[in-house]
Amino acid sequence: MDRSNAVRGAHLPPAVVAALMALTVGPLLLDHVLFHPDERHYLDGGLQMLEGGDWLTPRTAEGQPRLHKPVLAYWCVAAGGALFGPSPFSTRILFLLAAAGIVWWSARGAAALCSEPIAGPVTALMLAIHPALLISATRSLPDILLTLGITIALTGMLELLSRGRAGWSSLGMVSAGTAMAILAKGTPGLVFALHAGLFLMWRQCPLLTAHPGRFLTAALGGLVVPGIWFFEMYRRHGDRLVDQFLTDQGSPYRFVSEPEDVVWQAMMCLLLLMGSFAAVLLPGARTLWQRRKEAAAVLSRPAGAFLASWIALFLAAAACLNHVSLRYLLPIVPATAMLLCWWMLELDAPSWRENLRRVAWGALGLLVMTAGLCTLIWRNTSPLPTLLLLGSVALVLRVLWRQMRFTSLIRSVTVMSAGSLASLLIVTGALASLGGPSFGRQVADAVQTAFGASDPLPVLTLIGEPAHAARIRVCSGGRLKVHQVSPREAAHIAGEGPVAVLEGDAMLEFRHPIRSVPVPCGWRDLRLNEIVEHLWAGDLVPYLRSRRRNYLLAIPAEDRPHSPTAAALPRLSCEPERVHR
User: Alpha-carbon distance 99 to 459, whole Å?
Assistant: First the structure.
């Protein structure tokens, strides 16, 4: 029995790996369990496109042009809403598909680098459990679209450099990916295009001179398509485009001013990127150091040099920003995964494979721990689902356990990724269950129940964060208009319609009877020792309910046509409802 062959064992096609990754985090799309504050810009802009019919100009919730970022993210939100109706799922589904596309295209790029048949699956498996990709896949933000565009263009470049010929398919990928990246976030896509052009002039100048027409066509396609949108926005909005876009892309406040800060942030960015690949990089750290000359030889090839130079260029640019975030490093995550896979297959070190096998055992242990924690949470409240969960975990463990008889690279990486994805699936289900319906959905349901089929619904005044207003609009299917004001502006509110205000803030003086319904929105005063105690006691869910932070939703209580009386309003919390007169 051969236990050392690096390619021994069946492997999952990259498309299957991408689908499994999407299914794992898919439950988070059904509601706003996790929400990034910047999502509100793209949700509001997408809803404005659906309502106003202008699919070229991104707008704020108030209808004003917002040209800080290009239009692609707004199109994805609006397209999902047009297909399925506005909802948390529809406004995020295209971003999840973009994440799956990154996994598939990265596998294709890795296959262009290495002749081993497992190159694509290994790269796909590494990316399927990368934290930056998993976090961004469930949010309506342009970072995932930027990364998909760069990955497509990167794959085209790798095929071109590996084969040494300027095929139309490779150039088409570079052109289409560049156009997508520029339309997603602007400058980063343009930086990649300039880097690719300079690299070709440096390492592939004979190829450029042999096919100048093909390269010129590809360059024009990648730049002219987004250029048309920018030209139309300048024609419509003139200086507003220049002011907003240039302020967002190149304003001094976005960059650090001191050289020592740049050096410090460069180190932080590098450590953050390496740490995100720790499960693969740490097992091979000793091998990479001992065989550093062979690893450097990989980087001396044209494709390896392009990968390394793109990673270094992006890290240098990220070090100049005033904020270090793993999400901002996402555009070089696929390139890093391809490079690590190439090193693993080229060096073919038994010690690296053996260490990866130990990490795979750790992933199985993580799966057991996750299942055990969920058992502690639900053993008293949901015994039957808990038994089903344990049975499913036992079946997965049995299948993965059989793969651990070998030390082959593909088996170890498969078990590591499968165990991590199974654990993540349990965690996402737990988050959805513990959190219950999101704040936005509960507010939208309460207002729609109170006012029935009235069209249009009254405007809801939200005294709180702007991101919460966007969540309510989306969860209502776009029917409910929300006017968001700060607490300082609350004194000027007439208080005639429904109002939502964070608990603890002063309620307004209303001119008519209202009913105040507490709506859960996050938690307050959580303590780790108390969480552990209640988890062990099996009553974590009641403890979390008692620590709910609430918005107080004030709804007019008088009877009206097509609406229920105050007594028919739903109970959204265990706290008593209050009536103000």
Answer: 36
DSSP string computed for 53-88:
---SS-B-TTS-B--SS-SHHHHHHHHHHHHH-SST
**pLDDT at residue number 76:** 96
CA distance 288 to 300: 15
Mean residue pLDDT of the chain comes to 85
pLDDT of the residue at 27: 87
Contact 179, 171 (CB under 8 A): no
Report pLDDT for 495: 56
Closest to 456 (Cα-Cα) out of 377, 562, 383, 569: 562
Tell me the HSE value of 418 on the side-chain side, using a 13 A CA sphere.
Answer: 22
Alpha-carbon distance of 208 to 230, in angstroms, equals: 29
Cβ–Cβ contacts within 10 Å for residue 519, how many? 23
Per the structure block, which two tokens stand in for 202?
């440096």
Nearest C-alpha neighbor of 401 from the set 361, 368, 367 = 361
Count, residues in the chain: 581
Residue of 80, 106, 117, 82 whose CA lies nearest to 21: 106
DSSP character for 490?
G
Q: What is the per-residue burial (b if ≥16 Cβ within 10 Å, else e) of 315-346?
A: bebbbeeeebebbbbbbbbbbbbbbbbbbbbb
Q: Where are the alpha helices (DSSP H) in 204-332?
A: 205-210, 212-237, 239-250, 259-276, 278-281, 285-290, 292-300, 302-319
Say if residues 368 and 375 touch (Cβ distance below 8 Å). no
Q: What is the DSSP letter of 322?
A: S
Whether the ω angle into residue 383 lies within 30 degrees of 0, i.e. cis, is no
Q: What's the pLDDT tens digit per position in 218-263?
A: 999 999 999 999 999 999 998 888 888 888 877 767 777 788 888 8
Q: Which amino acid is at 61?
A: A
Q: 93-113 and 119-128 are packed helices; what angle lies between their axes, rounded to 10 degrees?
A: 150
| C-alpha separations of 139 from 30, 216, 276, 428 in Å | 12, 36, 19, 14
Residue 72, pLDDT score = 96
CA torsion angle 456 461 462 468 (round to 10): 20
pLDDT at 504: 56
User: What pLDDT was estimated at residue 306?
Assistant: 95
Beta-ladder partners of 502: 551
Based on its alpha-carbon atoms, the radius of gyration of the chain, rounded to whole angstroms, reads 26
61, 469 in Cβ contact below 8 A?
yes
CB atoms within 10 A of CB 470: 28
**Among 413, 376, 375, which residue's Cα sits nearest to residue 392?**
375
Residue 463 · residue 511 · CB < 8 Å? no
Segments of the chain with pLDDT less than 50:
1-4, 6-7, 559-581
- DSSP at 556: E
Contact present, 393 and 373 (Cβ < 8 Å): no
Tokens of 179: 């156009």
Residue 490's pLDDT is: 67
The structure tokens 């920018």 sit at 230
Q: Which token pair is 401?
A: 């356990």
